Amino acid sequence: MVRVAILGATGYSAKEAIRLLLAHPHAQITALTTRQDDLPHLGDIHPSLRGRLDLRLENLSTAQLAERADCAFCCLPHAASAEVIKEILPLGMRAVDLSADYRLNDPAVYKKWYDHDHPDAARMAETVYGLPELYRARIPRSQLVANPGCYPTSTILPLAPLLKAGLISPDGIIVDSKSGVSGAGRTPKLNFHYPEANESFSAYGVGTHRHMPEIDQVLTDFGGKATEVIFTPHLVPMDRGILTTTYSTPTKPVDAATILAELRKFYANEPFVRVVDGLPTTKDVTNTNYCDLTARVVRGRVVTISVIDNLIKGAAGAAVQNFNLMYGFEETTAL
Q: Which residues carry out catalysis?
């Protein structure tokens, strides 16, 4: 059994990670942390988990964490996550970081987009980006894995194989994404208050969303050519799910059959990517670790459509998938 600590256990991603790990035959949750003073019981914070795990959330030191757990799922805010990780790794722990702290590999880029210096800059470039479909070979030997952002997962999975194969140009890619409200986290904010978000549909973070440099970095690295996307996220009045549509220019005349064939070839042995003929919907993947995607060619442009559950494949499910690879378990375990 691998002893697991969930750091920052009050949020939605933490709740999903706990739920998945409770069904994992090789994981035992031994610690839950919070910065709250009252140290609530898990069942009071997440009522759906009542009776399934008898633990209180605690404010533990890094030494206490290392005594209780072998691996940490870090569900803390950016910067706070790195502050803890840089202390627990030298104590022999491993970590899957669900924050944005180790996704970017350039401290200057991090400072530009997150407005402060990185607390653990020396470790950024050596941290593995935890998208198994692209970087599986590097994950098992890693002490720290940076879990991808939810929007980047839904964007990178359809585009990376096409860039790698040279079927689309790295220039002028447009990414249009829609997310459910849970993507904003559990902390109350005015824009996500029910009367504000319900029966409304809005764009946000246009040209400024922090997932944009993450998408650029991974597509550039994997595709082999400098790639910059125009990424526009939207808030949709539903609990969970992401639908992402991308628009790119083919490098030569192609049809949809050619694009779909390339995607099917690339993902032929991937347990959680399903290339479909029809147009996927967010309900097709709700509460699962699947990404469903398809492609069309419209007026000389390649159009891809992908859907994921932002809290599972976009967060906790991907974290469990990475955990399984890190410890040599079957990749689909508990998923």
A: 150
Distances (CA, A) of 188 to 26, 37, 44, 182, 191: 35, 19, 18, 11, 9
Q: Over the Cα atoms of the chain, what is R_g?
A: 19
Which token pair is 231? 């990424």
The CA distance from 276 to 264, in Å, is 9
Q: What are all long-range contacts of 275-282, with beta carbons under 8 Å and residues at least 24 apart?
A: 279/305, 280/243, 280/305, 280/306, 280/307, 281/243, 281/307, 282/180, 282/238, 282/240, 282/241, 282/242, 282/243, 282/307, 282/309
Instruction: Indicate if the pLDDT at residue 190 is higher than 80.
Output: no
Task: Determine the number of helices (DSSP H) and then strands (DSSP E) in the chain.
Answer: 11, 14
**Which residue do the tokens 């509460």 mark?**
287
pLDDT, tens only, 121-143: 999 999 999 999 999 999 999 99
Q: State the Cα–Cα distance between residues 151 and 156, nearest whole angstrom.
A: 9
Q: Classify residue 39 as left (phi > 0), alpha (psi -120 to 50) or beta.
A: left
Exposed, middle or buried: residue 183 (CB in 10 Å: 0-12, 13-18, 19+)? buried
77 sits in which H/E element: none
In the numeric block, the tokens 């009252």 are attached to 38
Burial 208-223 (b: 16+ CB within 10 A, else e): ebbbbbbbbbbbeebb
Determine the Cα–Cα distance for residues 174 and 301; give it in Å rounded to an integer: 11
CA atoms within 13 A on the CB side of 201: 2
In the DSSP assignment, the letter for residue 234 is E
* Residue the block writes with tokens 């042995």: 269
Compute the distance between CA of residue 8 and CA of residue 307 in angstroms, rounded to an integer. Answer: 27
Residue 142 CA to chain centroid, in angstroms? 17
**For the ranges 34-48, 97-111, 310-324, which has the lowest average pLDDT?**
34-48
For the cut 80, the answer to whether the pLDDT of residue 203 exceeds it is yes
| Structural contact between residues 250 and 298, judged by C-beta atoms closer than 8 angstroms | no
Distance of CA 243 to the CA centre of its chain: 14
